[in-house]
Amino acid sequence: MTVTAEDLLGQVGRFLAAHDPAATDRRDFLRARFDAGLAWVHFPEGLGGQGAPRALQPGVDAAFAGAGAPDNDPRRNVIGLGMAAPTILAFGTPEQKQRYLRPLWTGEEVWCQLFSEPGAGSDLAALATRAVRDGDDWIVTGQKVWTSGAHHAQWAILVTRTDPDVPKHQGMTYFLCDMTAPGVQVRPLRQITGEAEFNEVFLTEVRIPDRLRIGGVGEGWRVAQTTLMNERVAIGGTAVPREGGLIGLVARTWRERPELRTPELQDRLVRHWVEAEALRLAGTRLRQQLAVGAPGPEGSAMKVAFSELNQRLTGLELELLAEEGLRYDDWTFRRSDLVDFTSREPGYRYLRAKGNSIEGGTSEVLRNIIAERVLGLPSEPRVDKDVAWKDLPR
């Protein structure tokens, strides 16, 4: 039986009648919503959903928001909701799905991503963090870098090298890692904004039970691709209204401050407005594709366009504001919990946007993916394709 939008809205109404948002504890409310199948409606029954079309999710979220219901603080757990959850759903065991998806969705457990390394930032398959089998456990040693939110995460998705004697793409294995386990050390990386939302993570003989492995031994690359495709959609494919996001902030300044206008800035603003609207509509199309299947390489194009438009818009905003745009409210070092593009000052937005073309896959790497997997162009020559990882120069 196909679940319709009317069915779901009726369920939301009955749920709210039984769970008054104003009188129910926030955590209890979110747990009950998950158990009712109104969390991810496109997930299977028993895992927060009902197997409904993904396109019906915004209507459910809007109905809860309109009733003043608490959300699960999605900006604080972007990696868990956007990357870990779909990966666990696709490759996890039944026990893993039951254990991790509910506290992930409710926000009781925040997740981070242990992928990038100092020597393998843009080439994930070159990673060197080793996992060695020891009975029912794996002993993991290595270093990860640019790990967003590691300082407040309870769990991580982790890719390791388990077989150095085969080509680099074949010898990787994917795990869930307890960030409170002995041997896990998180150190802040201060950014150009003065904050440290990123971290470097050192893993020193961290013992991970084999039951926390996702997918088969040596299948880490295949599992990681699901994570990465969902990551790029999460970064670049978020639903926004017309003039939502940065273009709305710049357009508002333009309307409210006519003394700042020049013909050249007007020309650039109009161009960027058109780009933002085209990107918004492309995002709508991408989400429609997701409603009938898994994310594909098209998410890479959205992520590239999103990153570069963000950088152009923040630069335009600074030029529009002239010396006002150079003000910065606070350089105090702090461990921030989330990225806030809309509530901070223009100087922060300009500086933080510089990272958009690096995080979630560099624009250069994503252009290769677009060329090869979307446009069907010949791939670049890869001399290391059939060489064992241990024999590669480093």
Q: Uncertain segments of ≥5 residues (pLDDT<50)?
A: none
Q: What structural category arises from helix and sheet content?
A: alpha+beta
Strand arrangement within the widest β-sheet reads 1-4-5-8
Give the integer mean of the pLDDT values: 91
Tell me the total number of β-strands: 8
Q: Work out the helix count.
A: 11
Taking all Cα atoms into account, the compactness measure Rg is 22 Å
Explain what you see.
- 41% of the residues lie in helices and 13% in strands.
- The chain has 394 residues and is of the alpha+beta class.
- Strands 1-4-5-8 form a four-stranded mixed beta sheet. Strands 2-3-7-6 form a four-stranded antiparallel beta sheet, with no helix packed on it.
- It starts with a helix and ends in a 20-residue tail after the last helix.
- The model has no long low-confidence stretch (mean pLDDT 91).
Structure summary:
This protein has 11 helices and 8 strands. It is α+β, with helices and mostly antiparallel strands and 394 residues long. The chain starts with a helix and ends in a 20-residue tail after the last helix.
List the helices and strands and how they pair.
Blueprint: H1 5-18, H2 26-35, H3 57-66, H4 78-91, H5 94-106, E1 111-114, E2 130-134, E3 137-144, E4 155-161, E5 172-178, E6 184-189, E7 198-209, E8 213-214, H6 220-236, H7 246-256, H8 263-290, H9 298-321, H10 346-353, H11 363-374
Parallel strand pairs: 1-4
Antiparallel strand pairs: 2-3, 3-7, 4-5, 5-8, 6-7
Helix pairs in contact: 1-3, 2-5, 4-5, 4-6, 6-9, 7-9, 8-9, 9-10, 9-11
